[in-house]
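Input.
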Amino acid sequence: MPSAPVAQREPELPGQTVVVIGGSSGIGLETARRARAEGADVIITGRDHERLQAAATEVGARSTAAFDATDPEALERFFETLPQQVDHLMVTAGSQYYATLAEMDFARARSVLDEHLLVPLYIGRDAAGRVRPGGTLLFMTGTDARRPAPGNAIAAVQAAALPALIANLAVELAPVRVNLIAAGFVDTPLSASLLGGELDKRRDQLRATLPIRRVVEPADVAALAVQIMTNTALTGATYDIDGGQQIVPAAGG
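Output.
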């Protein structure tokens, strides 16, 4: 008996344009790849020109721009050069800083806080006339505010503050939709650089303790990002993706 034909799913972003700031690696690159697979044209940015070009070739990006997203003037120039209105813009660019008070470099701490708390404001200002009504501005943060620990102060401050900032941007920039993804550990090059020799140990710990019994991957975040882009009822909200880490009792708790 012949098998029934498999129904072909329609792409979710046909003919749309998705910009990923920080799209040359990790979550940003995976989101660009997912958006492209869903029928979108993608524009990706990054700091490293060579790595950016390699990523653009890999995903078939329409164009690229190499600049530092923490530079307000560079951001403004980038938005001025966009060829037309875009549909969605995701920001994954940004570093993270963990240090105890005794070891803290306060200049670096201030720089990281500026990066996470002021860059969304710059982007909101510059993107206001470039993202179509009903389109999406999508930002990222972490989950460090939920479990205080030595060395987590700076990461916790930005994670706690961003949901309020994004909710306010959603009101001010409406009908453009503004949302936030709060990710736990994601197995990315950034995680590898932060953990160094402890990376495999952390992976094993998460596989043993997370309810999903695996580590969250960039593709998981990319799938959520595209879902937020396509669901036009979503704005002003924060969406967790941590494999259930927040419901696992803390060690010793």
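The first helix runs from residue 26 to 37.
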